[in-house]
Amino acid sequence: MKKITTLSVVFGMVLFSCKPSDRSWKVDSPDGSVTMQLALSDSGTLRYSVLLNGSVVMQECPMGIVRGDADLSRQLAYQSASDISLIDEPYTLKSGKQLVCRNHANEISLSFENPEGEVLGLVMRAYDDGVAFRYIFPGRTGTSVVVTEELTGFRLPPEGISWMHPYDRVSGTSPAYETYYQGPMPVGTAAPEEMNGWAFPLLFQTANTWILVSESGVDASYCGAHLGGDPQGGLYRVNLPVKDEALDRCPREPVVEMPGILPWRFILVSEDISAIVESNMTTNLTKENRLADTTWIRPGRASWSWWSEELGARDYGVLRKYVDLAAEMGWEYSLVDAGWPNMAGGDIEQLAEYAEGKGVDLLVWYNSGGRRHTSEEAKQATMYVPEKRRKEFRRIHEMGIKGVKVDFFNSDKQCIIYQYMGILRDAADNRLVVNFHGCTLPRGWRRTFPNLMTMEAVNGQEAYRYNSSYPEESPAHQVISVFTRNVVGPMDFTPVGISDRRYPHLTSHAFELAQAVVYESGITHICDSPESYHALPDYAVDYLKRVPVAWDETRFVDGYPGEHVIMGRRKGDTWYVGCINGEKEAKEITFSLSFLERDAVMEVIVDGSGPELLDYQEYEIGHGQELTISVLPFGGFIGIID
Predict the structure, then answer these.
(1) What is the average per-residue pLDDT within 377-385?
(2) Does 553 reside within a domain?
(3) DSSP letter assigned to residue 3
């Protein structure tokens, strides 16, 4: 194994595969199927292209950075380039699509200079499933620069189609990546006028190629980004956060301490959508695990009172009932949501003691400070002020609480990214796992901080409480989310809502049960009440007792964005297969379990004669055998193969 670190290549510049007169460079993936090419124009601008099996799939995409002190987007001159280096780095996760991963790519580093002598470094990688690149500022230590504009763009062929969701308007609860995923739309479709552009990730289908675009490796040294809303000619340009985000309490323009390393932008490319859905690119591109001891970190299932009893966290008796549900089902956690400091009939210390006696760990909710009325109020919030946060984490750790849900960040500004990093570090110091809500998109942090179990950043199940359009829009949105949002990281959708809330769901009980397999999340908050689950057939209850959350292997089985999706996930020797139908029509879905290497019996929980009814079936199956299973409109099924 040979491990190459970016900094040693960029700043060392031990180089010379290219002469100063060269105007183009490329790096191929280890298997040779994917290529990233870079060209320097006569006017000193950088353009990159992406090739798959020798055919161009993205062409003439712009690059460049504008800083307060320097324009690094034009009049650039080539300075140096490295030899191509192999990265082959195994690593493990505590939860994810698979626990044992491999960061495997070829890398080249280049350096360019503007007329004033300011240097722009560029690192490019080619993986077997895509490409990635990032900018480097090799400036003098102790100085800083302000990035005012990023000119990075992603140019897609105009004949392609896309699936994406808008970057939301600024409000007391947004942006939080909670708009509907839309599509298929023509490449170049403008975002709705009332929104602030398009959000990562973006999925495209062009000719025979699937392409997904997102970013990774964002940390406190920069901000999160999104895309402009008017991608004319199929060019999607990177935008910095909106000025009014985070109550306007910090600048939209990131301040980069020198030497500076900016986040990765990555592009997944494949002729087969399975390579997109199964990719671990987001964690491949992030920093290694920073925690010396991770033995205390436990993925798991959680009961949750808020779905059924919104004010349940203020009632000790209600919370005990949900602790009892977790204990009965063998789930690891119970989540105590907003309002618990005002609990009647008991307090959090008593509940923690009660839960410990039941073998259940507690998770507790906090406001990040992002939903305060003024900037000054927000700055006094417990989770925003490091000293207050650390004191509170020590307090709850000492009473036996095992994790926190921190809500209402509502911004990708650099100061909020800094807050995320601080929460993860302080939580790890106190052996607390973390769930972010009202938050940014996953950008690979679960590798660096394995105590990060899940993130919301999705228009999830709670919307049945407040969004009248959700029942009709949600099924297709949920299917698209598997091909987009859940590709880049854990998704706290809060699945398995059997009962109805304010706006009754149209999905079947089998659809809801399948969500626990179709979606990946390090903690799965199974959202309904004890009464709802006790009313299910015994085989469905047994499934909810058994279903894991940390997977040894994940396989895309079948589907198409917005129509239906079947996911296969393995824990040990047991495979779980989940299907959800995003369309308002009954289907007979035929699929192959080509990943199965043995003959077996698959137990199937499937739609009955109506959406609230279930049926149980068994199939004898073998490698490569095709199965056909009927599902209702907005229906689904779960298969279990021991």
Answers:
(1) 91
(2) no
(3) -
List the structure tokens of 496: 């398995």
Three-class DSSP category at 550: coil
The SS3 of residue 511 is: helix
Place of tokens 């409480």: 465
Q: Which domain holds residue 529?
A: 300-546
The answer to whether 593 touches 568, Cβ cutoff 8 Å, is yes
Task: Say whether both 82 and 198 belong to one domain.
Answer: yes
Q: Return the structure tokens found at 32.
A: 């040779």
- Are residue 276 and residue 306 in the same domain, yes or no? no
Could you tell me the two tokens for 120? 């722009």
pLDDT at 582 over 90: yes
* Whole-angstrom distance, CA of residue 156 vs CA of residue 269: 12
**pLDDT value at residue 372:** 80
The pLDDT score that the predictor gives to residue 248 is 85
Vertex 330, ends 327 and 331: CA angle to 5°?
Answer: 85
Same domain as 499, residue 385:
yes
Pairing of β 226-227 and β 235-239:
antiparallel
One domain for residues 334 and 232? no
Q: Amino acid identity, residue 19?
A: K
pLDDT of residue 11: 30
- How many residues can be counted in the chain? 642
pLDDT at 120: 98
Residue type at 515 in one-letter notation: Q
What angle is formed at CA 269 by the lines to CA 264 and CA 273, rounded to 5 degrees?
125
DSSP for 622-640, written as a single string: -TT-EEEEEE-TT-EEEEE
Confidence of residue 549 (pLDDT cuts 50, 70, 90): very high
| Separation of alpha carbons 20 and 250, rounded Å | 41
Quick one: CA torsion of 39, 43, 45, 46, rounded to 10 degrees?
0
List, for residues 39-88, the tens digit of each pLDDT value. 999 999 999 999 999 999 999 999 999 999 999 999 999 999 999 999 99
Q: Which residue has the higher pLDDT, 141 or 6?
A: 141
Q: What is the 3-state secondary structure (H, E, C) of 199-228?
A: EEEEEEEECCEEEEEEEECCCCCCCCCEEC
Distance, CA of 429 to CA of 609 (rounded, Å)? 52
Q: How many domains does the chain have?
A: 2
Query: Residue 173 and residue 624: Cα distance in Å, rounded?
Result: 47
Of 506, 526, 546, the residue at which a domain comes to its end is 546
